[in-house]
Amino acid sequence: MTDEERKSVASEYLKGLDTGKDIFHLFDEDAEVFFPNWGVARGAQEYKKLFSDLGALVEDFKHHHAYINWIIQGDMVVAEGSSEGKLKTGETWTDSKWCDVFEIRDGKIKRLYIYLDPEYSRY
């Protein structure tokens, strides 16, 4: 894969989250996904549960795509940016910083570690 193809997979994942589109086709069946306060999900059953658990907390959110910093080296893609959104409790956030570290091979996300402060609404 080229750097642009890897970036495209990561970007499709982020845009899919924003619009509520299916993202699971982007992941390898054995992918590993980390989210703070949730831990590491290994395999499709666990990472689908992770995203379901997060979906139960978050009503709406949006990544600021125009301002994402990208670093791509080999199979690794790092995306750093900010987001805004609303929790189902009604609390909102406007400029939460995050960093996602992907490992993408053969068109699939093999590993995704999501780094952010999970207490969004403090900001």
Supply database-style keywords:
seven-stranded mixed sheet, alpha+beta, globular, 123 residues, 48% strand, Nuclear Transport Factor 2, Chain: A
Plain-language structure description:
It is built from two helices and seven strands. With 123 residues, it is α+β, with helices and mostly antiparallel strands. The chain has a single domain, classed as Nuclear Transport Factor 2, Chain: A. Strands 1, 2, 3, 4, 5, 6 and 7 form a seven-stranded mixed β-sheet that branches.
Number of β-strand runs = 7
Query: What's the CATH architecture name?
Result: Roll
- The low-confidence parts are none
The shape, in one word, is globular
CATH class: Alpha Beta
Assembly level? single chain
CATH-defined fold name: Nuclear Transport Factor 2, Chain: A
Q: Give helix and strand order, one letter per element, not per position.
A: HEEHEEEEE
- Output the number of helix runs: 2
Q: What's the overall average pLDDT, rounded?
A: 93
Work out the helicity level.
10-25%
Largest sheet properties: 7 strands, mixed
What separation lies between the terminal Cα atoms? Answer: 38 Å
Tally of structural domains? 1
Beta-sheet strand percentage? over 45%
Which radius of gyration do the C-alpha atoms yield? Answer: 14 Å
Output the structural class: alpha+beta
